[in-house]
Write a structure and sequence with these properties.
Length: 178
Amino acid sequence: MQRTPSAAAAVKIPPSCLSGFDCTALPLAGNGLDLAVDFALTCRSCNAFAFLIFGFPIVAPDPSPYYAVEPGQTFFRPPHKLRCSSCGAEAALFDVRKDGYDGVLNGGASYESGTDGEEPIAGQFKVTVAVFFNVEFDELSELAAEANVSISNLFDCITIKGTPVNGGEDVELSYECA
Ligand SMILES: [Zn+2]
């Protein structure tokens, strides 16, 4: 299986929201999606792979207005940044208001962003970021040229996955950006 042209372009030039990190595109798995690219992130300063994942926590009221979030459950709103567990270097990772298809072209996707009370999710995580490209390559190339960005910046979905370095459940933060 081969990647789609848009995904192949993103392997060559990763989305600029990942520019604060060293990114390695993971090989396409046998059952992987050819329209997606998974990047493993490491610290640009010290090369370590364990991070704290930050967001803006909120406890869902009853009834919960948030999809797949139960009343009383805490969830972490974007924007998200990472802090290296070894050297403390920090870099922005994803802001729904400016990253991805709707962020670049339409002034943001319809998710609530946090502004106060940024906190790390409990634990240290190995982080991979999957970006998805469902739009046709020709259309995406044209839009990217008009917006003066790389094709990879126009991902329509992103999943930030944290695997705890000391065991436990994975954290997944997914956003539809188109
Ligand atoms: Zn570091």
